[in-house]
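Now for a specimen:

…
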Amino acid sequence: MIATLALSFGVLFLAELGDKSQLMALTFALRYRWWIVLSAIAVASVAVNLIGAGVGHFLGAALPTDLIALCTAVILLAVGLWTLRETLGRDDEAEGSSETAPRPPGRAFFVVLSAFLLAELGDRTMFATVALASNHSWFAVWTGSVLGMVAAGALAIAIGITVGRHLPERLIATGSGLLFLYIGTATLLSALLPELGRVAELAISAATPLAAGAILWLLRRRSERTAAAREPERLDSPS
């Protein structure tokens, strides 16, 4: 059992390295408290790997993976756009402050949990769990898979925390929003155009955050010019 647990841990941990799920963990860690992200990943890992190890070999072929991928893409794109929208309303004084506005932990937990559940259902890591469980103890495979997935998520969260300590809040919010758009576009392309190829998929996906970043920069420039034009009027007006 120990050998099966170690095997499952190693397979899932390596499969998650560089995967969209790990990138999602890093991105969420830039926006929410680390313990909220890690606990949501743990709950999602328990549920997804229980399906894979317990009854995944019966349901795997019947899972509507394309529909799940589309839902995941829509959620990620929506979160990315909402995050970028928030940055437009953040003024320079708030940007320079080290204090960030508190976010409801319940809502943050639900957002992270739902995103990871949808991302992992039908993903290659779940089918790896199914393959391992077909020849080994399902409980050992389930336990090792959960530990491997959580460990990969914890690694990404640690990177996100380290990066976040050295960056201003507005830059973190902008970067995480663009990352969400990138992951969402890649997920959408993999569902709609599976024959596209990994390299082409990632290259095309980069166009979405680049375009969004350019639009965001233009909107900020216009806002700054409007504020600068109004400043003399405010100074000249009688107090």
Summary: Residues 91-101 have pLDDT under 50 and may be disordered.
